[in-house]
Amino acid sequence: MKTPFKVILFLLLTIGCENEDKLTFEPYEIDEGACGNCPQIEISIPKALDKTRLAKTINTTLEEEIIALLSFDEEKEIVSMEDAVYSFTNSYRELINRFPDETIGWEAKVNSEVIYEDKNTISLVFNTYTFTGGAHGYGSTTFLNFDKLKEMEVENWELFTNTEGFEKFAETKFRIQEAIPQDENINTTGFMFDGDVFHLAENIGYTPDGIQLIYNQYEIASYADGPIILTLPYAEANKYLKRKVRL
C-alpha cells in the first residue's frame, strides 16, 4: 500500500509545482444588449488576479486594446473600458440622432483567452468583431505575448534570435501550405504581399501546437479569403525562438 501512496503523493506535488507557474484569472464580462438607441457590445476577457507586475501589465494591455477598439471620441481622453463603452454607445446615438432613418445597429464583440503558458511565456489571443455600417463588419485576431520573468509584453521582433532566418523558414512553409512554387513570386497564386515580397504576419504568438502566424483579412488577401493561418511546430521553430518550448 505504501508504493501507490507515494506515487499519488508525487503526482500531486508535481501538479502543484506546475500550477505554481500558472497565473490566476477570472472572467471579466460586459454585455450591453442592443436596443432602440444603443449598440450591441459584448466583452469577455480574462482578468489576472495575482498581485504582481505581470498581472497588472496583462490587465492594462487588454484594457488598452479595448479602449483603442471602442473609442470614437477624439476630443475626450478615455482611460477605462467603461469610458470606451460609453464612447462607442454615444457615437452611435449621435449618428441616429443626425440620421433618424439609420436602422442598422452597431456591434462590438471582444473575446480573449490564455492560449499558451509555460514558466517563461504566456500568450493571449484577442479576437474582435466590429460593425459600424457599410457592407460588412470587420473581425481580427491579435496575439499578446508576455515574458513572465521580465514581467513585460513582448513585441514580435523580440520573439526571435534570428528574425531573418525565421522569416525565410516561414516563407518556405507558407509556400508549401498554400501550394505556391518555391521558384515563383509569392503573389503568383493571388496573394497581395506588398511589393510581391513575403513578410511575417503582424500577429505572431505561442499556441499549444506551435508558433502561429495569423494574417488578418486584407493583410495579404481579400476580405472574402478570411484570415490566413500558418502554424509552425516547435520541433522546427525552436532554433529561431528566444523563449524555446520544451518538447
TrEMBL record:
Leader sequence segment: none
Record PROSITE patterns: PROKAR_LIPOPROTEIN
Segments traversing the membrane: none
DUF3298 domain: residues covered: 169-234
Every Deacetylase PdaC domain range: 37-137
Pfam families in UniProt: DUF3298, PdaC
Protein name: DUF3298 domain-containing protein
